[in-house]
Amino acid sequence: MKSLISTFIFVLLLGFAGFSAAEPPVSAVEIKTLDNPSVPGAVEMAADVAVAVVAEAEVAPAPTVDKGDTAWMMVSTMLVIMMVIPGLGLFYGGLVRSKNMLSVLIQVMVVFSLIVVLWAVYGYSLAFGGEGLIFGNFDKLFLLGVTVDSLADTFTDNVKIPEFIFIAFQSTFAGITCALIVGSFAERIKFSAVLLFVVIWFTFSYLPIAHMVWGAGGYLLDKGALDFAGGTVVHINAAMAGLVGAYIVGKRIGYGREAMTPHSLTLTMVGASLLWVGWFGFNAGSNLESNGGATLAFINTLLATSAAVLAWSAGEALSRGKASMLGAASGAVAGLVGITPACGSVGPMGAIIIGVAAGFLCLWGVNGLKRMLGADDSLDVFGVHGVGGIVGALLTGVFTAPGLGGTGDDDFSIIGQVLIQAEGVVITVIWSGVVSYIAYKAVDMLLGLRVSEEVERVGLDISSHGESAYNL
Q1: Other CB atoms closer than 10 Å to residue 432's CB: what's the count?
Q2: What's the CATH architecture for 66-463?
Q3: What distance in Å separates the CA atoms of residue 366 and residue 361, rounded to the nearest whole number?
């Protein structure tokens, strides 16, 4: 009632301000008693103001917060956490030699935890606070002003979700992106160097790319770049950091001369499976609502991944004469990466084609391209996440077309959209590459990047962490 009275008073004062000086203003007492017939025109004015208030309420209805959307986002956030711990950890851990198993697990877990905390301290504010071409602002530093009543936008006008769950969901994206980089320099880097590097890289590469693609006023968002769940922000961004790291840290001792086969493809398969399940939260959760858009991202994630498994396995059978478990697991991850930027805007058949393309091209990425680059990218971060992310980003511009089953507008231009997508890829590659180079060099000067030859030969589990994955 008090707010309604205040509205009446404010509107009436504005109206009276336009009266001529010869016409005396209505007193405060008369304003408060507009229903008093003794005030000339009071009833009519009150009626006009009431109509205006009702009209304003109709134009701007109260935001809708659906419990189903909130529940879905909480589940999606937990699914993404499962992608990292234990999914990514087991996928990477099974691929290294047994003497380095725990080093990979602890790097993944601690990096993820570190970034989640930094996200709350300043990351969320710089990525999603305010408007800017490259960065947000510091308005929400330490989550200032965020309460249980704070709301975040979705893709539907006037439909909101609690801001706390949006912050939590996005923190897992930042965490897994930094954890992905670990696979490129596995088995020979100092634990302290990993932590310092990801702090620098998160601040100056992840946050600006995230804002440019997803933040209000972001350069690539305003250009119309499509990246539903992180093809550029997560995968290409991390892949470039990994590739630069593989060059700067250097090759493992005995690389190319000694056998460095995965110590447990069983664990790798379990990790890949957890990644696949968790990725439904990653992709479908990026819809921010539990509606038809989420189901589109869901089925596209299922179809593209399955298609990529088949494509990679077929490619191996054709080139080597037999398909492998490692290939099938890698194909699954390639399909997941490829569909990530496209899952919310392409149709199911487009998703299958993207999955097939990602499967075949990522197979080439971890074989032919890797030999061409000459880097010891230990767990093929660039070959899968870099190649798959680029393939997915570009094909998003093709299969979003309504004529190909996508959700684009009738005036959608494939050529125009592909050019915009390519610009996003180029910006991400250059930005992440430059920031990564500077960050690695800074860490090398401060702490040193690489463990000693003796430590590397013994293994990082015992030498760096004082424990062993297996005590048989």
Answers
A1: 28
A2: Orthogonal Bundle (1.10)
A3: 9
